């Protein structure tokens, strides 16, 4: 099986869970009330529902006609976060969208793989693959 298909499948399984794992880590570290126990199962189910309804078709459409890039993943994650808030308004809209953006970043980092992450970092720093600086 193609590695990009495997990475995409793993990404779409893990990315909707990443905001909830982040909230659990924040709650475990400090004395922060993140309302994680309030309808956690329903929220995770809705996150997967909107991911399968919005993110997977958008990913397939984007990869069919071009390259799946960082801004695609972040935008899709934001839309999924907004739709999660629209169906289950347990948290404020900005928190839901921010958690969706975090899930989009998680999706992109899984789907992109280490080679594209390195190329993205080098292009951001103004370097290309042919020349490298010793630091």
Structure summarized in a few sentences:
Helices cover 74% and strands 0% of the residues.
Characterization of this structure:
This protein has 135 residues and is mostly helical. It has one domain. It is 74% helix and 0% strand. It is built from 5 helices and no strands. The protein has helices at 3-14, 18-29, 40-65, 70-87, 93-124. The longest helix has 32 residues, at 93-124. The chain is globular, with a radius of gyration of 17 Å. The termini are far apart.
Average pLDDT for all residues: 83
Low-confidence stretches: none
Structural class: mainly alpha
The major β-sheet equals: none
Structure keywords:
135 residues, mainly alpha
Mind sketching the topology for me?
Layout: H1 3-14, H2 18-29, H3 40-65, H4 70-87, H5 93-124
Helix pairs in contact: 1-5, 3-4, 4-5
